[in-house]
Amino acid sequence: MASVPVPSASNPMRPVLPNRGVATVKSVLSGDTVVLLGRATSTDTKAPEVVFTFERVTAPRTASKGNDNKDEPGAFPAREWLRKTCVGKSVCFETRKQGATAGDRVYGLLFISPSNGDGKQLNLAVEAVRLGHATPKTIGASNDGESQENDGGDGETDPAVEYQNLLNNAYEEAKAAGVGVHSKSQLVRSMKNSVEDFATLSLVEKSQKLCENGAVKCVVEHVFDGSRLRCLVTDPAMTSDGLIYGSFTLIIAGVSSPRVGNPKSNVESEPFADEARQFVEVRLLNRELRISLHGTDKSETCAVGTVHHPKGNIAVELLKRGLGRVTDWTVRLMNPMDVPALRVAENNAKRTNLKVWHDYEPPKLSGAAEIQGTVVEILTGDTVLILPDGETFDDDSKLKKVSLASVRCPRLGNERTGKPDEPYAFECKERLRSLTIGKSVRVTVNYERDVPMGESSDMRQFGTISVGKRDDIGETLIADGLAESQRHRDDDEKSARYDILVAAESIAKAAKKGMHSEKDYGTRNVNDLTDPKKAKANAGSLIGNKKLKAIVEYIFNGSRFKMYIPSENCYVVFALSNVRCPQPNPSSYARSQGRAAEPFGEASKRHARLSVHQRSVEISCSGMTQGGVVTGDLMIGSGANKRDFSLELVMAGLGYVDQRRIDYGEAPKTLVDAQTSAKAKKLNIWSIEQKKEEVRKMCN
């Protein structure tokens, strides 16, 4: 490999490149020009780059906006040959001519070791001419004047003349063989840009249908930042649909890297943006790779896809090094099997505070990270009240309000404002009730969030609730099409099983379950018999000896409830016929707040909340009061555990037998005996000594 001295620059400064050296080909711009990448002097500096063009050789110009996106004949094959030959590989260079500044183009020779390993380095400029991908700028000249000037009288051949002769011989060979630009039929490529010339969504659909394994072969033409690329379709399978040589912007699925700034607009790069882009450029730029396109962004401008590289997933590598964050909206488009690797890589970077996570702190919980207890009440389709194990329910403050992490259920309406339920809101709440009410559950708290509640706010815990063999109740609701996975911001904390929730939603959508159904949601109409007039008009259908299944919707006090009777599709106010309970504090929604609670009124109500609230019960309706309240007996539990709730209240001293029923001999003996026993033991309401007048007033 002969070398040629570099002429002195007009400006006596250090040359951009030395006379000879070794560099890596970062990218190929055309059939005669490449970008060489050197080594960074330190980890904090960017590796030097230089545009390097073959000396005394010219290749056809590739398509650009300056030539109406149309190649000169043979330009694309010339660039492709050079790209496949040297991109990403180490080459030896010899500089022949260069400017005085780092921004100037350098002219010279490039040599690469051939793949056959014969040890003789290949002159890329000469080889390009021999294959017809380039032509000498001066054809047939040997530059004898320069030879005489530089031979020194020792008979040695001038390297410049020798190089020119090699070019001439290679040119004659190519011309004789009719290859490359000398052939009669040459490829003239017309560039097509997505959005302008074809729909990006059409490209996605065609690639999934026509390409091998649904992955289209592309060349990465440009790297905007670590997660956005400009790609060129080179897959022959796309020729029939006219999408060959289509250019489109690709968003790498599953990751979002910091954005690179724009000096023209005075926009600075985000931290670690340049490092992320350089990381991707070194590995993907100008490589021909297969890309699985999953979909597009909202505007259908950019495609979203996974780049298949022989050495791994570039998205995982970026996340592993802290050069990006997982983007949930692109994750939703991916194969669920590919997502766990992304989460593991991001979590490792978070834990070690790498790069973009340098200031990350794990979420701090105000309470325990795990709660075990019994579900006391279902507030909405995704929020419950739980009484932790070991706690005594002597105050509402003992209950923990927990919402399902990363789950969004349809919102319930508001009767007072006339706002209706969202579709499937009732079904979602009912499904959650049937799965959890009164059962022992385990909650793994994932994060806390300040939830606005009118003029105030509520610090809410969000977690994964498991009951029995179900690891995640949220997954069950989503799989049934009764709820959706929450759309989080990229920096939001989320459920540890978020990807499983997303996968369950995809399956429910495909099966068109629940809210994903194409059928119109029917209006739910329930006959409200809490109105006294309506109750009396329908008394005949309720009162009798038959037993009815009901669900306790609301508790007024320990012996008075609002119930929903599914078989009759109606709401009723139901009271125990033989037992009365002390009055609790009035509801916060009550018009009058002046009446104070009677002794043990709240305790009696809390007992009812623990025992019957939102439970499926069995009632037998025996009568109706003048106020339209249905009266009768209430049984809770099932099978061998079925028991009379009236008897349970009296035995616990939280209720008393109606004195008039005792006087008329209508009270069951079991209740009277239970009350006598509770009095003797001075349980709860019988533990307080009262004046006779107060006792008489209470019993009457």
Q: How helix-rich are the residues, as a percent range? A: 25-40%
For the termini, the CA-CA separation is 117 Å
Strand order of the largest sheet: 1-2-3-6-5
**Shape annotation:** elongated
Q: What fraction strand?
A: 25-35%
**Class inferred from helices and paired strands:** alpha+beta
Point out poorly predicted stretches. Answer: 1-15, 143-150
- Work out the radius of gyration: 40 Å
**On the 0-100 scale, what is the average pLDDT?**
88
Q: Care to count the β-strands? A: 30
How would you describe this structure to a colleague?
By secondary structure, the protein is α+β, with helices and mostly antiparallel strands. Helix content is about 25%, strand content about 25%. The chain has 19 helices and 30 strands. The strands form 7 sheets. A 5-stranded mixed barrel has the order 1-2-3-6-5. Strands 10-11-12-14-13 form a 5-stranded mixed β-barrel. α7 packs parallel to α9, α11 (about 475-480) runs parallel beside α12 and α16 runs parallel beside α18 (about 670-680). It starts with 19 loop residues before the first strand and ends with a helix.
Q: How is this structure best summarized?
A:
The chain has 700 residues and is an alpha+beta fold.
